[in-house]
Amino acid sequence: MTSLETLRTDISARFPAQDFLYDNQVGANVLSVPKESVLPVLRHLKQNGHFDFLMHITAADYPGRQRRFDVVYELFSSKNYARLRLKTQVGENETIESAVPVWRSANWFERETFDMYGIVFSGHPNLSRILVHHQFVGHPLRKDYDANQQQHCTDTMPIFFEDEPNYKPDPNKNMMPLNIGPSHPATHGTLRVMVELDGERVNRANVELGFLHRCFEKMAETHPYNQVIPYTDRLNYCSAPMNNVGYCKTVERLLGVEIPPKAQAMRIILCELSRVIDHIVCLGANAVDLGALTGFFHLFQYREMVYNLFEKLCGARLTVALTRVGGMAQDAPAGWYDEVLAFCDQMAIGIDELDRLLTGNKIWNQRMQHVGKITPDEAIMWGYTGPLLRATGVSLDLRKAQPYYGYDQLDFDIPVGTTGDCMDRYLVRVEEMRQSLKIIRQVCKNVPSGDYTIRDKTIVLPEKKDVYGNIEGLMNHFVLIMKGLRPPVGEVYDATEAANGELGFYLVSDGSGNPYRLKVRPPCFAIYQSFPSQVVGGNVADVIAVLGTMNLIAGELDR
Amino acid sequence: MSQENAITPTNVGPNNAAAELHQEFGFTTQLKKIAAWGQKNSLWPMPYGTACCGIELMSVMGPKYDLARMGAEVVRFSPRQSDLLVVAGTITEKMAPVILRIYQQMLEPKFVLSMGACASSGGFYRAYHVLQGVDKVIPVDVYVPGCPPTPEAVLDGIMVIQKMIADLTPRPWKDNWQPGVWK
């Protein structure tokens, strides 16, 4: 069902009277339908087994047009790895049917679209603001909303639940409401969890997010392409280089350029080092939350080693902004790859020690096993990707499914779990660290020679010696700075396998120097949706265990 | 010093007056100064890590940089038990009322360290949902620049606060602060 023709035959047979528009943009299938047909088409595509994932829903604003908004649905199949983008147009005062009855993962994405654009999804169970604060007026991602127009918030929301927005504890029921966060050690600073307790048991749960909504998407629309890269660093700040790579790969795909082999190798090394430290932070923090402080102190030594490697490469520790559209910012210093290999040897010992410390530990087992169980079907329904999906037994990894940068040439395995509980998530992460080391070793031993970036004058700035040394270089630099990098008009969705799962970027270009629309599909946003349903019925202590294994990074959750 | 008062091994003993004089010591100071000395060496930080800086703050607490060397290793997540608020990360408009309440819950004497560009000024997020500096809602004593600052810079910032405490530096920005008034 990969080809557009097959889809066209199938959909025309089901909807004969309709006139749908089939298109192929930058290698991706796009299907444009009237808004009334969206829900039937989605239902058909899901029930006939074409697509099982709804990756995200978003919108784009075209103020000059009669029907102002484009609503975009990104579908994915875990069977044949096909993708389809479903688009429809919605006017300012029109509503569109909610996709929640078909895909549960639509819930928060529709709320976000409503929050950002004011598009009303009829039939949505709880269409309320999700990212900006409750006193906010207007819809910030509309083109007529000024990026710098702040609105102050003067108070916080009292405890509320999805089925009871104005919550009042019932004195006859003997339930205790409990607020956890946003300032709580286990919520990592910016998450708010509200539960209603029946003794130790969680009766109802709800979450509030948006405490770190830093307007990434609006910032991207107001900055040139290369200046967006530092903003992407701060999405998942535990593994910043992966976001750089994901974003640059998307822009490169729209530009239609292929980066040199050396840049690909460097990006793989950076990505896998980031995956290791991301898992270190996740497991370390998870262990601290459950009372095991040693793991944190022990593992963070290794994270410091990776930061030293990053520092040698570019001078920054955490937010490296090392990639550029077209390749890397600079070459690695002499001997850097040997240091990476030396680190791999040390880290391998570190992982074994962690394994001995936690795996099999009685307390750890009892806190993790049979907690937060989820079936593969449910996980797919919620839009799980990454280690959490693999913990349920689904072997889906974009490095294998849609290989990029030569991942298909490398020898590594995809660890999977069986039950999807917290223990499996932990075990999958530990094994993924080992596999990442395996990848790094292979790449470091065979780094291709050649340039670290393409030398297209309309994309990449010339080297400093040319800028200061000859008039052509100077003019080239001047023009590119003033005019900016300008991809052709078009749109693209591209995804990479980040530490938490599928990190997707949906980019719309209008041919100018700034992205017209840049939407991030953060992996933990979809995962966190399922959190209330995962903790209800369990003990209140398990709330912390589940929260920790989900590895929620507020930067990419709230953006 | 006369011969009989001199301390020699022979006349040191439990009942010897000269030995008692030797073992005691005394100095004069002011109560506020000795209190400040104690306070500066036992700051209890409340890490308010909201974003990337929170991750770097973990490094500050971690084995390599080790904030314990400054006597500030007792990290308290309860504002009532801490006297140094480390604002590490972007504070959004939604977070502003929360951090104000946290600050008000802390007991005197209390200090605030703003870690990183976002907490200090909003950083490069000149955006609709980002507070343009945490000093819009609470008084800040030390700003540490960087995005994120290196752990060394944060340690330096904490040492500046220690010096402020030891020197009893006047803090008009805090004395003139009013809760709920936006700067």
CATH class descriptor of the largest domain in chain A: Mainly Alpha
Number of helices of chain B: 7
Overall number of structural domains of chain A: 2
Q: What is the CATH topology descriptor of the largest domain in chain A?
A: Cytochrome-c3 Hydrogenase, chain B
Specify the overall morphology of chain B. globular
Q: Biggest interface between protein chains, with counts per chain?
A: A-B, 52 and 41 residues
Mean pLDDT across every amino acid position of chain B: 84
| CATH fold descriptor of chain B | Rossmann fold
Radius of gyration of chain B: 22 Å
Helix content of chain B: 25-40%
Mean pLDDT of chain A: 88
Class from helix and strand fractions of chain A: alpha+beta
Beta-strand content of chain A: 15-25%
In short:
The complex is a heterodimer of chains A (559) and B (183). With 559 residues, chain A is α+β, with helices and mostly antiparallel strands.
Strand and helix map with partners:
The complex is a heterodimer of chains A (559) and B (183).
Chain A: H1 4-14, E1 21-25, E2 28-32, H2 38-47, E3 53-61, E4 69-76, E5 83-90, E6 95-97, H3 106-117, E7 120-122, E8 176-180, E9 192-198, E10 201-208, H4 216-221, H5 229-233, H6 240-255, H7 261-289, H8 293-314, E11 323-324, E12 327-328, H9 336-358, H10 362-368, H11 376-382, H12 387-391, H13 398-401, H14 422-445, H15 464-469, H16 471-483, E13 490-498, E14 501-509, E15 517-521, H17 523-529, H18 531-535, H19 540-549, H20 554-558
Parallel strand pairs in A: 2-5, 6-7
Antiparallel strand pairs in A: 1-2, 3-4, 4-5, 8-9, 9-10, 11-12, 13-14, 14-15
Chain B: H1 17-23, H2 31-40, E1 45-49, H3 52-61, E2 84-88, H4 96-105, E3 111-115, H5 116-121, E4 142-144, H6 151-166, H7 172-175
Helix pairs in contact in B: 2-6, 3-6
